[in-house]
Amino acid sequence: MKYYNNITKHGLFVCFVVFSIGCGKGDRRNTPDVSGINVSVKIHRFEQGLFAIDTSNMESGYAALAKQYPSLLQLFAENIIHDQTNPQETPFEAVRAFIAAPEVRKLNDTVQQVYGDLRWLEKDLSQMFRYYRYYFPEKPIPQVTTLVSEFSVDAFTYGDSLCGIGLDLFLGENYRAYNPDIFPAYIRRQFQRDYIAIRLAKAVAQNAFGDIPPGNRLLDMMLYNGKMLYIVDCLLPELPDSMKMGYTRAQMEGCEANEPAVWARLLTQKLLYSSDFETFKKLVTPSPNAPVVFQEAPGEVGNWLGWQIVKAYMKRYPETTMDALLKLQDSQKLLEQAKYKPRREQ
Description:
Layout: E1 12-15, E2 44-45, H1 46-51, H2 58-68, H3 70-80, H4 91-100, H5 102-114, H6 119-135, E3 143-147, E4 155-158, E5 162-166, H7 185-188, H8 196-209, H9 218-235, H10 241-245, H11 249-257, H12 259-268, H13 277-280, H14 301-316, H15 322-326, H16 331-338
Helix pairs in contact: 2-3, 3-4, 8-9, 9-14, 14-16
């Protein structure tokens, strides 16, 4: 069977790799009171219905699941588990092969042992979506559904109405079935229950903003990803910044201590306005390090700097709504108006 792949077609946003006032570190006093917002998340267990299908009566089981999860089943069968080497495979055939595979059934058994009871997650996500309703009052609260995808997706959105969580990618960083050649240590570090809400928040943020940065320069990508992180921070204000970045505590402390030096390196090496993605990609994509600035700098440190610039802008213009922030597409103008300075110099 296959391993992880990123899916971004038909409005599906997958996160694996990212308004109003005061959502960043040091601004917790401005976190809005959302206790009066009526949101209660009930998690739907797609994988339980899927593996409950009687394989001796597949047709009726498949039809019942299609009636309960019409959009998700189609997405799951045609995009997530579809055998890419067999273009003639039908959705029904894909599902039948998937649930019949012994290794997949064993994986689902493990998921049910670890995540049989998700009331704790419903509580966490209810709070997250109260913030979502506060910042995105016009958007519906999506249905949240869990699944087992054999390591294909961790968290995703499908339009505004559906969120999915691949529970098999949250079985602990040392789970034996995670191939280290595919999932290196810096990625596996996030394969645990405490990251489920963060991964879903990143998918929700990307869905709100779209999946295309406004330009191909490093600055464009830093600020695009910085806005995503800003949204995540607003949705999960009580979680530490290190977790939102997928960093260790030491990496986060290193970023904060060396912020002026990293910013200076981007300027002196003329990287900020570079469009050579191969040169700066480790600054904005998951990577164990970003040696283009410093050998010990963690990957995505450019995204973290972009987040600091966005926070500086929002501190200077606190009346800016989330919608207005997301519509600011001129990266240079945002940078200039933010008047960003690394925190040691502030």
